[in-house]
Structure formats: structure tokens, C-alpha cells
Amino acid sequence: MKVDPWNVSGDIDYEKLIKEFGTEKIDKKLLERIKKHTGELHYFLKRGIFFSHRDMNWVLDEYEKGSKFYLYTGRSPSGDMTLGHLIPLIFTKWLQDKFGAELLFQFPDEEKFLFKDNLTFKDTEHYLHENMLDVIALGFNPKKTKFLIDTKHATAMYKPACMIAKKITFSTAKAVFGFDNSNNLGQIFYTAMQSVPAMLPSYLKGKNIPCLIPYAIDQDPHFRITRDVLPKLGYYKPAAIHSVFLPPLTGPGGKMSASDKLSAIYLTDDEKTVKKKIMKYAFSGGKPSIEEHRKLGGNPDIDVSYQWLRFFEEDDGKLKKHYNDYKNGKLLTGELKQILIDKLNKMLKEHQIKRKKAESKINEFIYRA
Amino acid sequence: MKVDPWNVSGDIDYEKLIKEFGTEKIDKKLLERIKKHTGELHYFLKRGIFFSHRDMNWVLDEYEKGSKFYLYTGRSPSGDMTLGHLIPLIFTKWLQDKFGAELLFQFPDEEKFLFKDNLTFKDTEHYLHENMLDVIALGFNPKKTKFLIDTKHATAMYKPACMIAKKITFSTAKAVFGFDNSNNLGQIFYTAMQSVPAMLPSYLKGKNIPCLIPYAIDQDPHFRITRDVLPKLGYYKPAAIHSVFLPPLTGPGGKMSASDKLSAIYLTDDEKTVKKKIMKYAFSGGKPSIEEHRKLGGNPDIDVSYQWLRFFEEDDGKLKKHYNDYKNGKLLTGELKQILIDKLNKMLKEHQIKRKKAESKINEFIYRA
């Protein structure tokens, strides 16, 4: 198992990640506490899709004392967005709605440029635009959401990034990211830019504002550094809440990768493409023959179609029915795939309509210093 | 001898530096060629104060073909400016006047913040302002001179800096600057920011414009990297012309350091302070007693007052007379010191008047994207 901001591979053992990274599991008590404020629990919480955190209790303590947190998340624009990218974003939007929270949304458009040989700034410029449309389409509140784009907002970010960078040695970057002498200077500096949104509002207002960062757990190394450094500059450690990865179409484990065209479904894929990909590539938990499947049943715990329904079918009752029907052989793999296809195509169709309307809204979302 | 952008110590052997750094000595042929365009030679050139270069002949080839170069130099605002800082600036102003050249003047206000533990951005902000006054007081043409301030112009600089940084590995930074695991991430990235002005006009205009960088030779490691990287991005290597260091008051060798209060005279020092410092600390090439001095003469080649007159007495005739008078014992050390004191105080008085007037001009000089 390998999990860092640029590589996720192998079978992911999330319990082990909690131990390795030193985070806390989201337990019933915390869920109850969240529910007290949100009225209901997002199904990502109920299903353990958001499974780990740092300092959520502190953030809620502050919230209860009247000190509201803001949210910070982001997207590195290096390709078209996939279903996998949606998970932290859907949840961030829910948190924004439930807690009335401001959101700093970072587009670190230099990150992947620095880490991918063949990616140019022309490419990232293109994907930045495309990705902004996807993010806006998710329905974030434009009055409470600001897009912070590293190369366009560098004057707001570079000075605080230097304050952060001054507190991080190359030793630390080596230990946390596995860097060596062959890393380029931009890669080495980059993590400081990723820390900036976790302190920028506090820095600008001259007073500490709690920050909560929802993200997929692979980004945790960056934020371990952030949490180490910010107190040295007089700021709060940001709190964090972590999601698992949407598994790739082609296998039960790992993380969907936007660069592996087979394992990913893009937010801009049309109905036929979605159908074709799922029918052709979705890893099946079914038995080799219909007879055997009817008799012995399938294994939903490794079937990717079922796994994906856990992420996209909000209705607990329906999900449970699919689970049971598949497990007892009533539902064949092809039928389960069709259920997923219909669910996704309905969702993507709506997304794509909102995405078109987003074009005229970009300007509202851009951060102004 | 140690010469790098952050440390200069020991007896400086400039011939050896030319070999070690791989630069070229400024020879008579080059001086003649420069004179063809400038009409006269600046006394810094005649006296070998500017002694080394890279690609000056190429810059002049381009100039003669009608492709004008621009100048790039800078000042890291980390303290009050000294007489030593003036040397490359006086010469840059001369080049601007003689060649009608545009000048990009960088104030890398994050550099020393990153390299000095106790320096804050509040400090650099203060020195930035003070240093800008000194630079403007030197008489640069506001129509042709733009101040590029790293933290204030980061949106113009960070993206090209990332393009540069992508081409520099930590290995290279280790080899060139002697960095190790204890360097912070900002220090490691910084050299990319120092390279930016050497390509920014070409990058913005989408066509190659020759660049000439006058600087004291200790900055050469940065620009070796710049010259290595820019062609990989499709830009010209910048040309360079290098000065020796103004020696410290207290010794015949090395470099005046702004942080050593005894060895430095500041551009804001008043007449009494200048007199006191020179009388008290200027290293003497004289003999122990007046009798001996009269009989055997002094040694102007190690006498700091004479050395400084080489930098500040424009009149070759007067300088020669001081040399001879001191060497043959006609001039005592105290008298030579008084000559220097008078020269400097006249110069600084004029500078300080211009410096006051500079306050209202700052805005004209600030770079606009």
C-alpha cells in the first residue's frame, strides 16, 4: 500500500492509515455531536466514506462558543475531473450548507505542472477553466465561496508561503514526501503554497479563525506539515476530515486515477460512454455463471458497481436492497451495473446542465484580495 | 576565500574567481568596443572595479544589430544601504544613460527574510522603503526603470519562477549554493525568483530580448543557474558584468558588510559619523611613526582610505596624485583619511538631499504588470 499526495496504489487498509498518519477515527460519539448541529448526517458519514479526522471536536467546541470555522479544500487542475474528485467536494458543500461556512477553494495550478514532465501551463490553464465549471456546478454558495488560484493570486499567497516555508527544512520534506536530490525546486517549495489557505483569513484579519479541511486521505502529508508549522506562526492548527478513495472501475481496491482512462469516469462523459465503461470494465463480484450466481450469490463487498453505489446512492433503503439482492443472487452483475449506470447518468446529466450555466458565474467565485 | 551570495570572507583573489566561476576578464579589446558606444569609459572600467563579464561581446553584437538590451540588477532589502551597495548601482545608471537601456530593478524582499532567522517581513518592509529612496536618489530614469518587488509582484513572477524551478533539481542547488537538508524550503526555491527578471520581458512580449546584469561577483552562483536554465525555456542566456567588492573599512581585503557596523558606512550616515568611523577604523597602510612614514612612505595598495578613493574619486589625476603623495610619504594617513572624509561627505550630502526628494517619486518607479 502506498498513499501520498501523488501516488496511491495497492490495497488500501484505512485502519492502518489512521494509525500510520496518526489521525482519529470518526466514532459514534463524534457523529452524534455533528448531528446535533446538522440535524441529519450525510450518508458519507453514516457509511464511513468520511472515516477519519483531526481535531473535529475542537472545531465543534469553537463553533459552540460562537467562533465559526471556515472550510478549505481544493483541486489541482491537471486533467478533467472524475467521479472520484466529487467525494470531498460533495461533502464540503454539505458542510458549507449545514454550518453556513465560508469556503476557500484552492486551485494550485502550479502543482501538477511541477510534478508532471509533460504538463504545460497552457494545459493547466485549460483544465483550471474546466474544473472551475465542475466545482461551481456542485452548487457552492458564491457569496461564501472564493477560488484561490496559485499563479493568479500569488501576490496574496507568496508572502505567507515564505513565512511557512521558512519553518520547513528539506529534511522534513524528505521525510514527509520522500523527496530526494532529484526533486525540482518548485516541487520542494510547493507544500508551503498548499498550507497558505489554512492561515490566510487569520493572517489578513489579524485574528485566529478556525479552519476545517475536508480532503481525501492521500493529501494528509501536506496538512501534517501545515499543522506542524502554523502554531509556530501564531495560528491555529487546521482541523481535518478525511474521506476514503472512490475505488477504480477496474479493481476493488486503490483509488480512481484520472490519468488511467479505463478506471475513471469523467464528469463530462456522455451516457453511452458511462454505460460502455461500466459494462466493460467494472470489476465484478459475481460468480462465473448465472447458475452459480443465482445459487451462491455475488460478493457486493468486492463488486465495484455496488461499491460505487455506496458513494452515489443516497437512499439507505435502496442501497441495502441492492446489497441483499446481489448477495443472495437475485441481482446479476449486469443488472447491478445497469442500476449504477442509470444512477450515474441521471446525476451526470444534471451536473452537465449546471456545468453549462456555470460559465457565466466564474467571475463571482474568483478571490479578490 | 569564500564567495557566495550570502558570505564573502577571506582575501579575495579576483583572478582566481574568474577561473573558478568560469567568467571572462574584461580586456582592452572589450573596453575599446564599449568605448565606441559610450564615448568615454566609466572610471570603474578603467580601474578594473568592473573586471569580469559573461557574453558582453554578444550583447554588443546584438546592440550593433539594433537589438537593444535591457538591464537587470537589484537589492535585497535587509538593512540600510552602504557605500558598498552603490558600486553596481552607479555603474548600472551609467549603462542606462549611455545605452538608453530599460532597467528592471528587483527588490527580492523575501530573500533575506528566508536566510536570516531574526529578520521579519516588517523589517524588510521598512528597509524596502528606505532602500528604494537610495536607489531613486542615484538618478535612474523613472521612464526606463521599474522596481519589481517579489512579494508585491508575485503574481507577475511566481508562474515564470515555477517554469524556472521545474528545471533546477535540489542536486544543482546543493552543488551551486552548498545547500543541505537543513535549508528551508523558501531558501531552496528563492533562486528561481532571482532568475525571473532575466526572462520576464521576453516572456511577456513573446520574443527574446537581450538582458545584461551588472552585479558584484558574489551573486554569480544565482546567475550561473539562470544562464543554464533560460535556454531550456527558449530564452537567451543573460549577459553579465561583474564588480569587485568595496573592501571593509577595517581591513584591506574582503567585502564591506552592512551587518558589521564598524566596517560599513551607510548612505544615511551624517558627517560626524563618517569622520569618526574613518578616523577610528579605516585600515592604514602607513608606517608606525611620522618620521618613518615621511622617510619610507605609505602603502596605498593596502590602505583602505586610498582603496576607497579608487571607488569614489572620479578624477584620475587627483587619484594618481594621492597615490604618489602617500607612497612617497608626503601624505600622512590622517591626511589621506581627511581627503576621503571630505570626498564622501560631499557625496553623501548630495545623496541625502536627493534621497529626501525621492519620497514623492516612489510610485513612478513601481512595476505595473
Keywords:
369 residues, Rossmann fold, homodimer, alpha/beta, seven-stranded mixed sheet, 11% strand, 18 helices, two-stranded antiparallel sheet, Tyrosyl-Transfer RNA Synthetase
Description:
The structure is a homodimer of 369-residue chains. With 369 residues, chain A is an alpha/beta fold. Chain A has 2 domains: 2-249, HUPs (Rossmann fold, 3-Layer(aba) Sandwich); 271-356, Tyrosyl-Transfer RNA Synthetase, CATH 1.10.240. The first copy, chain A, contains 18 helices and 9 strands. Chain A has helices spanning 14-21, 28-38, 43-46, 56-64, 83-99, 111-115, 121-137, 154-165, 170-177, 185-195, 200-205, 220-229, 271-281, 290-296, 304-312, 316-327, 333-358, 362-365; strands spanning 2-4, 7-9, 24-25, 50-54, 70-74, 103-107, 145-149, 211-216, 239-243. In chain A, the strands form 2 sheets. In chain A, strands 3-4-9-8-5-6-7 form a 7-stranded mixed sheet, with helices on both faces. In chain A, strands 1-2 form a two-stranded antiparallel sheet. In chain A, helix 8 (154-165) crosses helix 10 (185-195), helix 13 packs antiparallel against helix 17 and helix 15 packs across helix 17. The longest helix of chain A is centred in the last third of the chain and has 26 residues, at 333-358. Chains A and B meet through helix 8, helix 9 and helix 10 of A and helix 8, helix 9 and helix 10 of B.
